[in-house]
Write a structure and sequence with these properties.
heterotrimer; A mainly alpha (610); B alpha/beta (307); C mainly alpha (309); A: 610 residues; mainly alpha; ABC transporter involved in vitamin B12 uptake, BtuC; 2 domains; two-stranded antiparallel ribbon; disordered N terminus; B: 307 residues; alpha/beta; Rossmann fold; 6-stranded mixed sheet; 4-stranded antiparallel sheet; 10 strands; 20% strand; globular; disordered C terminus; L-valine transmembrane transporter activity (chain B); nucleotide-binding (chain B); Branched-chain amino acid ABC transporter ATP-binding protein (chain B); ATP binding (chain B)
Chain lengths: 610, 307, 309
């Protein structure tokens, strides 16, 4: 919705040389436009240069920032940030070859990237001061970085905003600095892109996933917490900048056009991950994230698609895991059988399905809040049950609190998952094996999710969520439709559980609680779905990754992890209940935008095969 | 849809009709309140029947009894000879569809999706079919979409298929509700105040739409307050007052009946429904001294306002 | 079976505790249709409040003398937390879809647990709560511990006070009005915000009383007690008919009895020998919940309400 009226009363003389700037509103700081651009560019270059200098004199700060001429870790992040800032600044000013970077907003991404770079630099400075004990530990390079990044931000804040102030909004008649700042972060909708030839579009998608894999790998491989924080800062500001620049929208249009290619590319990129690792250390992290994310996706069917509140979902994961463990041939299992893997999967999924139906049937006829409590209760009962079926407090089934251990590694068609193998010349270890196996399940579950979503039953779920009475009047059997969703979710969790049993090589009751520090647990699963964005495929995957990595990487938060988690939930619901990657429909459900949301061509919202 | 003003009575229903709806003795009690009392109503195929009455007379409650939203305390409802079960989705499956007094569209779904949901009961592709995506599934989806588009064309909404229902102007939302209801291929369509809040032009267009619906073979039972709309459209009109059916007949007969006029104006008349109860209440008030003071206007008009 | 009076008595007293907590759930749900997930933690805070009072009083104070002070402190802390939760967590989300306040409540519940775990001295393991020493009292063939006497007196007092409050006072009637139709209540001049706060406050206060009873009975408290208590209390509220305060107490009593009797006698049922004893006692509450939902979902004292189209 970009308008092109020149702002009333503009007195810039140099109109022909700067056609892009005249349309906006003044920036947060009132600087002459040329000066602002110059300052931003100079600051960015300066920040870039500062990464070549040493920032501290001792290698005791992790990453060893003591060298001249070779930036590492946090300096590398700063370098990337400053280069990106410069790039979007130039792109917004019409430099040939870079214009594709900012089809939408031109100022907002600059501001965001400048702020992100500032964040990384100042965080590093703060961290050095805290870890090493005082500003005295800074080398001149650090000071240079601090000042240049500040200069970049000051310059960026002086740039004119992308949109003029809304003349109808009385609050913006004489906006204060804060309002101008907030306004500068808004951006115009990008014009539709020029049609690229098909191969170019597919190449773009492939490149996009390549970059995504790289970023993800970098994040997982961060060896220490400070680097992870710096990474998070840069990525979050960068992603927002990407969105404001309009690139996200262009990319979504592309992926929307080539859905199957997109998913294949994503799958291939994910499968490449173990091959980028030289050791199994981080692959185990990735495997656990994948399990967590896949289970979250299953919960997304229940919560995101059908709108049912399940607070005990991890119990279904546990049912599958215990079922698989019991038939795995482990010496601590009371059943002395060893099923082939496919049979174990069927057992696990089947058991979860049964429990899903047993829990769902009486409760889904009632108000949704009752389901929440019943599922919460079931989660607890599952744990208590597993703990007490140890022969003394109850019949001996599950070996009580010790659980079923020594679950043997899978051997499918001769491929032993517990051993190292060499594929494509790269050594991959057991965790990588299980990672790839889990990836297959993830693919299955993603396919199930997508197919169920875009179908008659997917529409019925949305209808029931919107207005159950009206849905019933349209001939939808509300109870049956909800039970299908609930049972499907349970089955998917059970499936994932059968793999989890082998990855963790033992199943114990304490792995399946409502909330604990280590995911997966019901609260974290729910949080992953909500944080990431309900109803989408990528939402829970992103949410799960964040919720797994943040506690894992930031060990120093230690005791306060859960406290922050609880606080995060409260704040999330207050300020962004639709989550990070919400689909349009969810955003509408939570915020009454009051705007006419007319489609502009491209794939429609309708959940049809078309 | 063209807007035409039609004069004269509408064509009466063709001969050789069959009973589409037969409601007998339908009574609905909520605790101490009897909202619908022993109402009999029949609709034949090809008929457009109007249901009128002052606010609070029990018309929507009666609809809800017909469609299974409420379980009537007494009485039974049968559709084409079969007694209907008391579950809304089964009633729709049998062949009765409805719209709502306060529009109940799926606001965050598109126009097309709303109508597709309406098709739910005439399609059977379940979860397994959706997951396997066989040729049967694709064929069914395509056919559903075609039928949905036909209905959108029929109601004049084809150009807005991807718009969100919440963003449609009011008149079009009402049309969408009708399209959605028609998607289940009903033999009887229940319309609850379809022209509430509409302009004269929109009302006329709605009338044309209802006539076209009848042309397609669906009988219609419509609740309305717009008398001109009713009398210009319906073959028969039934009047509900205080939960009882007061009068039923052709529009001319009903229009001429003084009691109907009196009921709407709130003036008391001979044999009005609820008279006995009102008398009881007055007696009780007098006995306990809690009634209005003698000689006030309230004393003159024993019928209280009910919203 | 000869200790039946004993089991009945302890079941009823346990049930009274659940009932007091259940009232908190039912009052809030009746007015704002929100399951206050954090209610269990509000009770837990009350327990720690009472403990703090005890610790602050000079050593050697008799428990009987300290009890009123502890009670005031427990109720005070609970009410403060309850009102705070309403004001800062729930009120901003009044119009939001149901999911948002529920998730907020979960987050709040986790936060409250962690605040105690992380910041209260020595709360990482259980802390001992003072108990009455001395022999138990015998009433009608059952041995009642001295600590349980507190609840035997407090629960009826609370219920009578509440009943009077709701039926006879202006605020009580205003509460009934608000729970039936908040918009019309506002039009009648009722300050619905204030009523909602009152509902939270009363629920929290009763929770505080229950907290003291819990401490006196079990002799120790920890940061996790809120979770199970909350779950059971909500079960009790549903059992009795959600939104009905007498139902909450009735539900609590039934639940307490069921738990007590099941724990004592289930193992005598052939085939269930291994399921007796304390390990399974939480399971019975859940089983009871499922049964009630199957058979009489509106609860024992609840009424079916028709849905207006």
């Amino acid at each position: 919705m970009a308008t092109t009226n020149p702002e009333a009363g503009t007195t810039t003389a140099a109109a022909p040389a700067e056609p892009l700037d005249v349309t906006g509103a003044p920036g947060t700081l009132r600087l002459p436009p040329k000066a602002a651009r110059l300052l931003t560019a100079a600051g960015a270059v300066g920040t870039f240069a500062s990464t070549m200098l040493a920032w501290t004199w001792t290698a005791e700060f992790p990453g060893d920032l003591t060298y001249y001429g070779s930036p590492v870790d946090l300096q590398t992040l700063t370098l990337v940030g400053s280069l990106l800032t410069l790039a979007v600044l130039l792109a917004g000013n019409g430099v040939r070859g870079l214009r594709w970077l900012t089809p939408g907003g031109k100022t907002a991404p600059v501001v965001l990237l400048a702020l992100g770079t500032l964040g990384v630099v100042w965080f590093t400075a703060g961290a050095i001061a805290v870890v090493l004990g005082g500003i005295v530990n800074f080398e001149p390079g650090m000071w240079v970085a601090v000042l240049t990044s500040l200069a970049t931000v000051v310059g960026a804040l002086g740039l004119r905003a992308d949109l003029p102030f809304d003349p109808a909004d009385p609050a913006l008649r004489d906006p204060g600095a804060w309002q101008r700042f907030r306004h500068s972060l808004k951006s115009a909708t990008p014009a539709p892109a020029r049609e690229l030839p098909g191969w170019a579009e597919l190449l773009t998608i492939a490149v996009m996933f390549g970059i995504g894999l790289f970023v993800f790998t970098y994040g997982i491989d961060t060896p220490y917490g400070e680097l992870f924080i710096g990474f998070l800062i840069l990525v979050s500001f960068g992603a927002t900048a990407l969105a404001r620049a309009g690139l996200s929208q262009r990319l979504s249009k592309l992926t929307g056009k080539h859905r199957n290619v997109t998913f294949t590319a994503a799958f291939v990129a994910a499968a490449c991950f173990p091959f980028t690792q030289s050791s199994d250390q981080y692959t185990s992290v990735a495997a656990n994230i994948l399990i967590f994310a896949t289970v979250a996706l299953g919960l997304n069917v229940v919560v995101g698609l059908a709108g049912l509140l399940d607070l005990g979902y991890v119990a279904f994961l546990g049912v599958g895991a215990y079922a698989a463990a019991l038939v795995s041939g482990s010496d601590t299992s009371v059943l002395g059988v060893e099923f082939p893997f496919w049979a174990a999967v069927l057992t696990g999924a089947g058991a979860s399905l049964v429990f899903g139906v047993v829990i769902g049937a009486p409760t889904l006829r009632l108000h949704g809040d009752y389901l929440a409590i019943v599922t919460l209760g079931f989660g607890e009962i599952f744990r208590i049950g597993m703990e007490n079926l140890d022969g003394s407090s109850g019949p001996s089934v599950t070996n009580g609190a010790n659980g079923i251990a020594n679950i043997p590694d899978l051997v499918i068609l001769g491929f032993n998952f517990g051993e190292d193998h060499t594929i494509f010349g790269v050594d991959i270890g057991p965790f990588a094996n299980y990672y790839l196996l889990m990836l297959v399940f993830t693919l299955i579950i993603v396919t199930i999710f997508r197919r169920a979503d875009r179908s008659r039953i997917g529409r019925a779920w949305v209808a029931v969520r919107e207005d159950e009475t009206a849905a019933r009047a349209m001939g939808i059997n509300g109870f049956r439709v909800k039970l299908i969703a609930f049972a499907l979710g349970a089955t998917l969790a059970g499936m994932a559980g059968t793999v989890q049993a082998h990855v963790t090589s033992s199943v114990t009751p304490e792995q399946y609680q409502f909330v604990e520090v280590v995911p997966p647990n019901s609260a974290f699963l729910l949080a992953a779905v909500i944080l990431g964005g309900m109803g989408t495929v990528s939402g829970p995957l992103v949410g799960a990754s964040l919720l797994y990595l943040i506690p894992a990487k930031l060990q120093f938060i230690g005791d306060y992890q859960l406290l922050l988690f609880g606080l995060a939930l409260v704040l999330l619901m207050r300020y962004r209940p639709e989550g990070l990657l919400a689909d349009r429909r969810k955003k509408l459900e939570f915020h009454d935008t009051g705007q006419l949301d007319v489609p502009t061509g491209g794939p429609g919202l309708s959940k049809t095969e078309a | 849809m063209t807007t035409t003003t039609t004069t004269g009575a509408p064509r009466s229903a063709p001969a050789g009709r069959t009973d589409v709806l037969r409601a007998s003795g339908v009574t609905m009690r909520f605790g101490g309140l009897t909202a619908v009392r022993g109402v009999d109503l029949a609709v034949d195929s090809g008929e457009i029947v109007g249901l009128i009455g002052p606010n609070g007379a029990g018309k929507t409650t009666f609809f809800n009894c017909l469609t299974g939203l409420y379980i009537p305390t007494e009485g039974q409802v049968s559709y084409k000879g079969t007694v209907l079960p008391h579950r809304s989705h089964l009633v729709t499956k049998a062949g009765i569809a409805r719209t709502f007094q306060n529009i109940r569209l799926f606001a965050n779904m598109t126009v097309l999706e709303n109508v597709l949901v309406g098709r739910h009961t005439r399609t059977k592709e379940g979860l397994l079919s959706a997951l396997l995506r066989g040729p049967g599934f694709r064929k069914a989806e395509r056919s559903s979409e075609e039928k949905a588009m036909e209905l959108l064309e029929f109601t004049g909404l084809a150009g807005k298929r991807e718009h969100l229902a919440r963003n449609l102007p009011y008149g079009e939302q009402r049309k969408l509700e009708i399209a959605r209801a028609l998607a289940s291929e009903p033999g009887l369509l229940l319309l609850d105040e379809p022209t509430a809040g509409m302009t004269a032009g929109e009302t006329s267009a709605t009338r044309d739409l209802v006539l076209a619906v009848r042309e397609q073979g669906t009988a219609v039972l419509v609740i309305e307050h717009d008398m001109r709309f009713i009398f210009n459209l319906c073959d028969r009109v039934a009047v509900l007052v205080q939960g009882e059916k007061l009068v039923e007949g052709s529009p001319e007969v009903v229009q001429a009946d003084e009691r109907v006029v009196a009921a709407y104006l709130g003036t008391p008349f001979e044999g009005e429904p609820g008279e006995a109860e009102a008398a009881e209440v007055r007696e009780a008030e007098r006995a306990t001294g809690t009634g209005p003071a003698a000689g006030t206007a309230a004393d003159e008009n024993p019928k209280g306002e009910r919203s | 079976m000869n200790d039946l009076p004993q089991q009945l008595a302890s079941g009823l007293i346990l049930g009274a505790m659940y009932g007091l907590i259940a009232i908190g759930y039912t009052m809030v749900y009746g007015i704002v249709q929100l399951i206050n997930f954090a209610h269990g933690e509000i009770v837990m805070f009350g327990a720690f409040g009472g403990l703090t009072a005890w610790l602050l009083l000079p050593q050697g104070t008799a428990l009987a003398l300290a009890l009123p002070v502890m009670l005031v402190m427990a109720v005070g802390v609970s009410v403060l937390v309850g009102i705070g939760a309403e004001r800062f967590a729930y009120r901003p989300l009044r119009g939001a879809p149901r999911l948002a306040p529920l998730i907020t409540a979960i987050g709040l519940s986790i936060m409250l647990q962690q605040l105690i775990w992380g910041f209260y001295p020595d709360a990482k393991k259980a802390r001992t709560f003072p108990q009455f020493s001395g022999s138990s009292v015998e009433i009608l063939g059952a041995n009642i511990q001295r600590g349980e006497l507190f609840l035997l007196i407090a629960a009826p007092v609370c219920m009578i006070a509440l009943g009077f409050f709701v039926a006879k006072t202006r605020t009580g009637r205003a509460m009934q009005a608000t729970s039936q139709d908040p918009d019309t209540a506002k039009l009648m001049g009722i300050n619905t915000d204030r009523i909602i706060v009152t509902a939270f406050a009363i629920g929290a206060a009763f929770g505080g009383v229950a907290a003291i009873a819990y401490g006196l009975k079990y002799g120790q408290i920890d940061f996790k007690i809120g979770f199970i208590l909350g779950l059971k209390a909500f079960t009790a509220a549903v059992l009795g008919g959600i939104g009905n305060i007498y139902g909450a107490m009735v539900g609590g009593l039934v639940l307490g009895l069921a738990e007590s009797l099941a724990t004592a006698y289930i193992e005598h049922i052939p085939g269930m020998e291994l399921f007796g004893g304390g390990a399974w006692k939480n399971v019975w509450a859940f089983v009871l919940l499922i049964l009630v939902l199957l058979v009489r979902p509106q609860g024992l004292l609840g009424e079916r309400v028709a849905d207006r189209a």
